[in-house]
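Re: your question from the hallway

Yes, I did run it. Sequences:
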Amino acid sequence: MKPVKVAIVGYGGMGGWHAGKIAEMDKFELAGVWDIDPERLAVAKERGIHTFSSFADVLANKDVELVVVATWNDVHKPLCIEAMRAGKNVISEKPVAMSLKDLDDMIAVSKETGKLFTVHQNRRWDDDYLTMRNIVDKNTLGKVFRIESRVQGSRGIPGDWRREKGHGGGMVLDWGVHLLDQALTMNDGVKLESVWAQTTMVTNEECDDGFYCELKFANGLSYFVEVTTNNFITLPRWYILGENGSAVVEDWDLHGKMTLVHNWDKIDSVPVKAGTGISKTMAPRTDETIHDAPLETVRGDWGQYYGNIFDVLRNGAQQTVTHRQMRRCLKLIEAVFASAAQGQVIAFDEEA
Amino acid sequence: MKPVKVAIVGYGGMGGWHAGKIAEMDKFELAGVWDIDPERLAVAKERGIHTFSSFADVLANKDVELVVVATWNDVHKPLCIEAMRAGKNVISEKPVAMSLKDLDDMIAVSKETGKLFTVHQNRRWDDDYLTMRNIVDKNTLGKVFRIESRVQGSRGIPGDWRREKGHGGGMVLDWGVHLLDQALTMNDGVKLESVWAQTTMVTNEECDDGFYCELKFANGLSYFVEVTTNNFITLPRWYILGENGSAVVEDWDLHGKMTLVHNWDKIDSVPVKAGTGISKTMAPRTDETIHDAPLETVRGDWGQYYGNIFDVLRNGAQQTVTHRQMRRCLKLIEAVFASAAQGQVIAFDEEA
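Structure:
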């Protein structure tokens, strides 16, 4: 089958990343890129990539079947809508939109035009995430009741428009949308009951530079999400508690381990000195009741994302990142902001 | 000055601990112990300690000036009140009472009788806590905006009455009361604005076996408290974030470190591979902008607790753990339970 010709709109960090990946894939072909910044266009030309003269030029090109929108967040909506109306299929970088209402407008145009419209939730294929999910899915630790998902930087929001509210900056819309999508994806059939969140503004006066969030699912799972950016010492990427064991995935390179209990009820222990007192409760288990095990690492195949896009366009497949999932994630983003602004727990409405 | 003669009521883990400590102090003298369990009385006798025949026997003893109540939590109230009415000064083990209303009844009797009435909040003298406070007080990390205080066990609630709701069991009333008192004590003049909490019941069906709690103070400090008991891998005891550095106190033995930034604005960095993508935001700082430093360890002198009791009784000093602080801590405990039960953020009323 003939490859899908792709135009990339917005040739910044992620635009460049898509261009590089597309160049490696047989099923896709890079038709060219467009950016409002002449310097970025010059970079593309230097790299031997065709550059469009305007967004209209992209849309007028009959060969372009798919447009990847990798611009500032605030212009995803008009660009995606215009592209679909011009007959193009569309992948938007995340966050797909800055509000649920905007997303609904975009989805309406997708339905109206029959064009593919989805978002690049690439982190569903991250090794660390899949390694964590595998532990949960295989019941390796017994029933998992707590997951903590943290990403911590130390340089605030480094530069450019991601610091600016008008362009959809801030960490909830940046890393947050990934970590929250991961939480929702692994609990796709499970009702999310409530959301508590707190945003931080340590290094930035305009946008949140991080947030803490507690999600409560109807199956009893307590899921914590943190993105912070003024941390000079970091906590593990994943911390997972099951009834019969715990696991840590330290980082993206999958350092970490599991500790499993094989004799839960054997809880005899000698009280430990803890500060000025003693503690029986916090005394460690004796060695014969627990053992360490290496993480069973799972490698993600991100190529499945574009593979699915190809199958949607050529073989009538269903898109992997669905409109329903996109709406749920954006609803959650709005609940995070609402909880932080109101200082209240937000009841999550799965039906809205 | 003559030593203060002490009777200990409840010769369990903490009763035995008080007895041992009192035996070491010149200013105090152990008059004897009483317990409802004959086996515990037998243990005391074996150790050459005088045993009382009943609680009435304790109260009838004219030499006994101070009664330490180290019983189940649910009987602190009647025992403390009866002891004060019999002319005894009283130290209660924590939690001092199971409700604010109960505590107010106890404080009323203290005022009515003029007898000392306080609670053994020994963990204000824990090395790890004082080491953390020293970092905050000295501004070593710049303004501290986030403190995380965790105690994690792996054996549920090990045995006895601490598993039973009727006796005031559960982890909020056990370790929680310490960690929450620490949070309040270091923010004694700062308004606590709100409380979010979630209790856990992983290993016990009757009492909470842990909780997560977020405290928001009016000075902008976000303070997290966790007590959990089914964790086979642990996170650090303290995690502290300041504007110009982070610190970790790993454990009660004060392993840990600080990492300080001496050139915050130099944030150039090379994007890192992070899962299936790249990240500029989460790329680490270059080495020349940060440096590690050892923790400045602070050793607590728990003897100051009993030293203050002596000074109150002999020299007219003010008690260190005040009625106001005891009420504030119990109000917070009630807010934690209320937040967990209602699934809501509780506005904290400092004036109630």
